[in-house]
Structures are given as C-alpha cells and as structure tokens.
Write a structure and sequence with these properties.
Chain A is mostly helical and 286 residues long. Chain A folds into 2 domains: 64 residues, no CATH class; 172 residues, MetI-like fold (Orthogonal Bundle), CATH 1.10.3720.10. Helices cover 75% and strands 0% of the residues of chain A. Chain A contains 14 helices and no strands. In chain A, α3 packs across α14 and α4 packs across α8. Chain A is globular, with a radius of gyration of 25 Å. The model of chain A has no long low-confidence stretch (mean pLDDT 90). Chain B folds into 2 domains: 57 residues, no CATH class; 240 residues, MetI-like (MetI-like fold, Orthogonal Bundle). Chain B has a two-stranded antiparallel ribbon with strand order 1-2. In chain B, a hairpin with a 2-residue loop joins β1 and β2. In chain B, α3 crosses α7. The chains are: A mainly alpha (286), B mainly alpha (303).
C-alpha cells in the first residue's frame, strides 16, 4: 500500500512537470508576438531591417513622436474617436441590457417567455447579414459619417442581456424589489437605486466586454466612416495595410500597432482576474 | 413568499415589464430588424453601379440567387471559410480539452491562475491590429523569417503570404491563438460541474487518466461541447477581420483566403445591392439553422 502511494505520487510529480512544460510553451506562444511588437516599436527603421532582436532598442520616444507628427495618419484622432464610441457603447449597452433583463426577470406579463426566447434566438444571428439594409437606412437618415450608428445599436445587445438575466437569477432576490415597493419607491426608481447597485459586478464585467467589442470592431465602422477625421483605430490599421509597405518606416508601423493594442492589454493586465471570472460566469454550465 | 400573493402583486405591475422593454425593441427594430428586412427585399432586385450610373432597381425575382449559385466563387469562398475554420478549430478544441482537464484535475493541483490569464489575453486584442502585426512578423524580411534563417531551419526566406498554405496557416494560427483560451475557460466551467465523486470512484477502480477522460468527462461534457462547437462554427462563418487585413481584402494568393463575409463586403463596397442581399440571405439561413442548436442547448441547461 505504502509502495503504491509513493509510486503514484512520483508518477504524479512527473505528470505535473510535463503539464507545466506544455503550459509554458503555450504561454511563450501567446506572449511572443506582443513581445516582438514591443521590441520593434522601440527600434528604428534601419535596426528593424538589419534583423530580428530580442533586446528593445532606444527609438521608442522617436517613433512615438514621429507617429504624433504624421501628416497622413492621424492615429491619435483615431484613438480619441475609438474611446468615445467604445465608451458610450459600453455605458448604453450595460444600462439598457440590465433594464431589459430586469423587465423579463421581475415582471409577469403575457408574451414574457416568447420575448425571452426571441432574444435568445437573435443572439447568434450575425450583424453582418443586415449590413446592406443598415448602411442604406443610415445613409437615408443622414447618419453616415456620424458615430450614432456605431453607438446607439448597443442598446439592443442580446449577449449582454443574457448575461444580466443569468446574473439576476442568481443574485437578485425579488423580495428586495417587494420591500422597495412597500417603501413607496417607483418602479423606475427601484431599478436605478436598488437593482443597479446589486448588479455592479455584472455591470463592470460586461462594460469591459462591450468596450472591447466596440473598440475592436472593424466591419461596421468601415461602412459608415470614411473621412479621415472620423476614422477609428481599426480603420487606420486597415489604411496602414493598404499603404505601400515597402516605403514605410517600420518603426512607426510597429508603433501604430502598439498604440492600437496596448491600451486594451493594460486594462486586461489590471483587471484580468475579474475578466477571466466573468467569462466563466457567463458561460453555459454543462 | 407564497405563490398566490406574488402573482397577484405582479399582475398590477405588468405594464412596467412592457415599458422597460421599449428601448431594446425600438433600437432593435430600427438598427437591426428593418435593415434585415430591406436587405432581404433588395436580394430580389437588380441594382448596382455601372461606373457612376445606377442601374435599377428592377424586380428580378430569384435571378440574383441563380447568379450567385451559378458562379463557382460562392462555393470556393465557402470552402475557404470552412477550411480555415477547421484548421484553427481542431488544434483549439484538442488543446482546450487538455488544458481544461488539467486545470480541473483535483490530483494534479496545478496553479492555473497565471496560465488562464495569459491564454485568454489574445481574445481581447483588436483582430485587425493583431492581423497587421502578423503581416509584419511573417513578411518576407520579417522577424519570423529572420529567426528561421538564423536557426538554419530554412536556407532562404519563405514567402508565407504568397502561398495558399502559408496564408491559410497564419489565419488558422491567429484564430487558434485568439480562441483557445476562451474555449478552455468555457470547458473548464463545464468540467467543474461534474460530480467529483465520479472521478474518485473511477480512481478507486484503477481507471487511467485517458479512461477517465473518455468514459466520464467527455460524455458528461457533451452539451457544452456542442455549444462550443456550434458557436465557434457560427463565429467561423463570420470570419472577416483577420484575412481581410492580412491580405488587404484581396484574399491572396488567387483568392484562396477569401471568406464569405469578405465576398459580401466587396459587394457592399461596389454597391451591388442585389448580390450583397442574396449572400446575406444565404448566410442568414445557414446561421439561423445553426442558432437553433445553440438555442436548444441553452434551453436544456436552463431546465
């Protein structure tokens, strides 16, 4: 018996080392592209052309100021546009998704189940399939080259709604709502002052996801925004790609990709534990 | 709270349920539903730009669909999309199952926090910028060729983006990197829902790790596995950002990395309403059928 335990614990030890070795390989695979991005964003065009290096260069500040001063690519204007669109989208998305989820969760009315099922069904239908009508309608409403078509639609976000609904089922007892009613609180007031504070963890997680989804969106903005002053970051990235690569200052090129990627990366590093929990929380349980 | 009193009270508040649903449905109607219906409507009309002149709109019935199906492009792009999805999904599901099994194994007791954070990270990165990065990394004189030359693995730089295998491989690699962390976390939460007593019993009976995995974990994981598979396929059919940026919208070489949504996007930009509409309807039908599977699995787990 004792022999057996010893043998199996030795066996377990080897298995553990093997597991860690594989995990480390995939960690390197995940981090390597971002490390090269950082290294090359800090090197000059000539240094990058000379070949690959694992050691950061000294041109980080110079590449940065070259990008700032660029006459053709207004990457910081793009950054600002992206922040405005993604920020407002995230706010609208979490507030109205919580409101929609609350309507289904707290009230009993006819068609309640039908409406809930409807939202679940439209959840997986891609937005691209209505893009033609979307652009057509936005054009006739005079909303092309504005941020409205990129911000307002996030009010109807089925995925965020579903997450909020799941969260309410586990964390929002209706007794609290009843108690607020007895205290004479109006329904809308109850939602804002009693329900929303309870939803804070879910709101935070979904705000991050909504922000990132909007921040990364390339397909829809490309159809709506074409003027230089309106372009968001992904549109400038696409512009970079369409420019003549051979004539480009590679230091600046890497710096621009760096500017598009690192804000989200930093937010992620700060809030990663929270975010990973959020992914597991919103998932389907087996 | 007894059932009768809540029912009685809720009835008087029912109108608030409807009122709170107004913003969602108003926005959904204007920005999604009406556009969807007009998209379907346009698919039955001939309307495109010939130079600066607009042709149509003329009602043509199913002509756009006939043109679409007679053109070999549709099948080619559908095949491209599925091939690149499969190339990314296979390694993704294998690695994710393995990692999820390791992370949830009570005997291994791995410290998984750090690894979960790292492998999920690429999921949040802007796909277009990530793609631009890979375009630069895999360029003919880029860092990857540099490393391979230095290590003596290749004699001269390999033109990844000039070959079908190279381009599809890079797209698949990126899709793998972006999604395997997410899939691992989803599968983990599924595995953690399995009764630990089953694993203990299997261990007492002397089952090997592989037997435990294939006889206990997999069968009980089936619902979430189906969910992951179908949502990934729906996502795969929408593949756009990565190949679009990587190939500058051309689907090079020889349109072997052109996906269905890139095809749609080209028609949108050339303002060929009829063809764009027909492709949209086709994608709608396919994704709706797949969505039913997702809906069923969501319903099953809520009961």
């Amino acid at each position: 018996m004792n022999e057996n335990v010893k043998q199996s614990s030795g066996h377990l030890y080897i298995r553990r080392i093997l597991c860690y070795a594989v995990l480390v390989i995939f960690t390197v695979l995940c981090l390597f592209p971002f490390y090269i991005l950082f290294v090359n964003a800090s090197r000059s065009h000539v240094e990058i052309q000379l070949g690959f290096s694992m050691i950061p260069g000294t041109s980080f500040i110079r590449n940065w100021s070259n990008v700032v001063q660029s006459q053709t690519i207004h990457i910081f204007r793009g950054l600002l546009n992206s922040v405005i669109i993604a920020g407002l989208s995230a706010l609208l998305s979490v507030y109205f998704s919580a409101l929609t989820a609350y309507a289904i969760h707290a009230y009993d009315f006819r068609f309640k189940n039908a409406i809930f099922n409807f939202i679940l069904i439209i959840m997986t239908i891609p937005t691209q399939i209505s893009a033609l009508g979307f652009v057509d309608l936005m054009t006739s409403m005079g909303l092309k080259e504005t941020f409205i078509p990129l911000i307002v639609p996030s009010i109807a976000a089925p995925v965020v709604f579903f997450f909020m609904k799941q969260y309410m089922e586990s964390s929002l007892p209706l007794e609290i709502v009843e108690a607020a009613r007895i205290d004479g609180s109006s329904e809308f007031h109850t939602f804002n002052m009693v329900v929303m504070p309870i939803m804070k963890p879910a709101l935070a997680v979904q705000a991050i996801f909504s922000f990132v989804t909007s921040w990364n969106n390339y397909f829809t903005p490309a159809l709506i925004l074409t003027k230089a002053e309106n372009k968001t970051l992904p549109l400038w990235i696409a512009y970079l790609r369409s420019a003549d690569f051979t004539k480009f200052d590679l230091g600046q090129l890497y710096m621009m990709i760096f500017i598009a990627i690192f804000p989200v990366l930093i937010v992620y590093i700060l809030l990663s534990k929270f975010i990973v929990q959020g992914v597991a929380m919103g998932s389907v349980k087996g | 709270m007894s059932k009768t009193t809540t029912k009685h009270k809720k009835v008087s508040y029912a109108k608030w349920g409807y009122i709170f649903l107004i913003p969602f449905f108003l926005v959904y109607a204007v920005f999604s539903f009406i556009p969807m219906i007009t998209t379907f409507y346009y698919s039955f009309f001939e309307r495109y730009l010939d130079g600066l002149e607009e042709i149509g709109p003329t009602f043509v019935g199913f002509d756009n669909y006939i043109t679409l199906f007679q053109n070999p492009d549709l099948l080619k792009y559908a095949a491209n999309t599925v091939i690149m999805w499969v190339l990314g999904f296979l390694p993704q599901i294998i690695i994710s199952l393995l990692f999820a099994a390791w992370f949830t194994n009570n005997r291994l007791k791995l410290k998984s926090g750090f690894f979960k954070i790292v492998i999920y990270m690429p999921n949040l990165i802007m796909a277009s910028a990530f793609s631009m990065l890979f375009f630069a990394l895999f360029a003919n004189a880029g860092p990857i060729n540099n490393i391979l030359l230095k290590l003596g693995i290749i004699k001269e730089s390999y033109h990844f983006l000039n070959t079908t295998a190279g381009t599809r491989g890079i797209v698949a690699l990126m899709n793998f990197l972006m999604w395997f962390g997410n899939t691992t976390i989803l599968l983990m939460s599924g595995m953690m829902g399995i009764d630990p007593a089953l694993f203990e019993a299997a261990e007492v009976d002397g089952a090997t790790p592989f037997q435990v995995f294939s006889r206990i974990t997999m069968p009980l994981l089936k619902p979430i596995f189906v969910y992951v598979l179908v949502t990934s396929l729906i996502g795969g059919l929408q593949m756009f950002d990565v190949p679009q940026i990587l190939t500058n919208g051309k689907g090079t070489p020889n349109r072997t990395s052109m996906t269905l949504i890139m095809y749609l996007n080209n028609h949108l930009f050339s303002e060929n309403y009829g063809m764009a509409g027909a492709i949209s309807v086709l994608l709608f039908i396919v994704t709706s059928l797949l969505s039913l599977f997702v809906f069923k699995s969501l319903m099953a787990q809520r009961k």
